[in-house]
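Renewal narrative, Specific Aim 1. Our central claim is that a sequence can be written position by position from structural information alone. The example that follows is taken directly from our test logs and has not been curated for this report. It begins with the structure tokens describing the chain, in the order in which they were read.
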């Protein structure tokens, strides 16, 4: 309704996590964890999901794929979550929870 009738000559520039400053990203080979941050002791995924308000569906999907601790998630990437059929919103929630966990871990050091 309010669209300009003139064609834009400026190409669209994709927005990435690095340009927005956000830790959340859609790049498929992006690891869930920074290589420098890994859990020191095994944290059961049930505890992690409860603490960071992740849904039972997320916990069930991880369990169905053999994951039981947060430590195991250090070795997977977003592409793995897609293969496990996580929805985009679930993937964002997982990344956000890991980001919050890593900040509390760093603050506790």
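The sequence written for that structure reads:
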């Amino acid at each position: 309704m309010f669209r300009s009738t003139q064609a834009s000559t400026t190409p669209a520039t994709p927005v990435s996590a690095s340009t927005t400053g956000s830790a959340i990203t859609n790049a498929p080979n992006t690891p869930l964890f920074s290589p420098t941050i890994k859990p020191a002791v095994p944290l059961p995924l049930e505890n992690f999901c409860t603490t960071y308000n992740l849904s039972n569906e997320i916990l069930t999907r991880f369990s169905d794929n053999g994951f039981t601790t947060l430590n195991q998630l250090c070795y997977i990437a977003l592409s793995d979550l897609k293969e496990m059929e996580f929805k985009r919103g679930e993937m964002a929630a997982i990344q956000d929870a890991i980001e919050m966990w890593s900040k509390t871990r760093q603050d506790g050091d």
